[in-house]
Amino acid sequence: MRYILPCVEQLDLAASLLNEKTNIKSRLALILIDNIVELIVHTKCVSIIRWDNNFKRTLGEKYTQKDKNEVLGKGFDPKFKFLFKAGVISEKQRDFALLVHPFRNEAYHLGIIHDDIIFELSCEYFRMACTLFESLRPNTYSLPRIEQLTETAKRHLLSSGDTKANFITKFDFCEISNSLVKMLPIQSSSLGMALSNSATRRAKDIKEMIHYLCGGFNKLTYDEVIYQLQYDHELYKDQPDGAYQLSNQEEINKYMSKRKFLNDHWKPKITGNTLERWERRATEIGHIKDSTVALNKFISLTNDFQQFERNTHDAVMQMDMAINIEIDRMRGK
User: Fold this and answer.
1) What are the boundaries of each domain within the chain?
2) CA distance 318 to 326
């Protein structure tokens, strides 16, 4: 009961939140789903390791104590890697969970960064959670009595006409899983398309910000702005406050030495062609049917441009601030 009811009730709540189709409730749903996924896989890990401990004298010990300690600890990744190695989950299930889990951490700690994909991502994760609930059911489990069931649990655990006598014999993880999945709202787009739209928007935003910066930066061209953004990042990235404190000769020498090194040896990784490739890669994600592959491509792409995206955004903010200061100066403020 301590396993079945939390899974059913929490997944029911997650589906109810997803039916609201709001960013906030989709974030909450993702957190709930991830929590249940971890409960399901942890319970299965405990079951496998307990079996290994009980029969190690006759069958031999299959897993080392180090492996067992790692799997039974608080880490998320080791549990999925262990179950894949044990042959009880697929490679795609392992990979998808490991890709989604950081989004859960982000949703919990940082909030709104990926709101434009959070609904579709949560729906896909929900389906996987229901599949794991069915396929990773424990070897032994206790069933609640009918009178212990909440109204939420009854919707999924009971069929019309069930009685105390036949409830146990009719109990079916597959039917419960299907009942939960039926709660999901209709999606207007696939996860792959949502990821594609998000990445495409961000790639285009970077290009628009660069065009905006062409009006500042001493009237540099589009390609010169791209170069300057990277140059400045390389020049200042190791400084605690993002700037050199040129108050003594030692700091001045360090600054001049870094500039000389960049001028003599450094070449930018990003050009105007790179930005065009980012946009093409973003579009291609929308044609990928496999959610794990699509999510992996999305993460790879956004990892490639997120530092430059951040640098560009910061430069826009600085230019806006300089413009406002100049406007206030001209107004005599």
Assistant:
1) 4-187, 192-330
2) 12
